[in-house]
Amino acid sequence: MNPYIALIAGVLAVTSSAILVKYSTADAGVIAFYRLFFTTIIMLPIFLAARKKAKMRMLKKDLLFSISSGALLAFHFILWFESLNLTSVASSTVLVTLQPVFAFAGSYFIFREPLSLKAIVCAAFSIFGSILISWGDFFISGKALYGDVLALISCLFVTAYMMIGQYVRKRADVVPYTFIVYLASTVVLFFYVLFAGEAFYPYSARNWICFLLLAVLPTNFKKTIAQMLTT
Q1: Mind telling me which residue stretches traverse the membrane in this protein (predicted)?
Q2: How far apart are CA 107 and CA 220, in angstroms?
Q3: pTM as predicted
Q4: Are the C-beta atoms of residues 20 and 213 closer than 8 Å to each other?
Q5: Which one in 47, 99, 137, 217 has a CA-CA gap of 20 to 30 Å to 39?
Q6: pLDDT in tens, 163-190
Q7: Do the beta carbons of residue 6 and residue 225 sit within 8 Å?
Q8: DSSP conformational letter for 56
């Protein structure tokens, strides 16, 4: 596939996430749970088919890192989906996609990777833009501002998730890593929904369609596009 077509398809898949969450009437934890649950079910045949490969074996520390990564991903979804109930889709999505800013800081302080002047300037513009968004929401309502804060914390969680993935993927194959992360995230979300007192069912057909599309488009399809662009 032409990389530009793949990139556009990936962007469209990612942008569908917030719209589908907003369209659903379920609680944030429930939406996150079913998104990861269906994602894990879809990935299961791929995992089973590749389980005999040598690189399917993971070191104990990498397994623990993968499970931790899944927990971070779970809380990223909970906080982000909750923020979509409090602020606008545009504000929440812009703030939650500031991962590069946190990634720059993490890469510099943890991995000791040098930062270019271009990266620093882009990060500064991103921070300035997030301040403008939050400042505007401050005048709209405290509720919208709280939603912005949740989106930023969610961004921090997903950045940590991505950086752990960067570390583990140096040794582990993408299939076992991704499957373990999604499975761990599903388990964490199951217990969150259980203890939060949110209902696993019943839901309308509209909600089930949203749950399934969230698993297919912004999760599995996005992951497939990312693999295509990096190979």
Answers
A1: 28-50, 62-81, 87-110, 117-138, 144-162, 174-194
A2: 26
A3: 0.86
A4: yes
A5: 99
A6: 898 889 888 888 889 999 999 999 999 9
A7: yes
A8: G
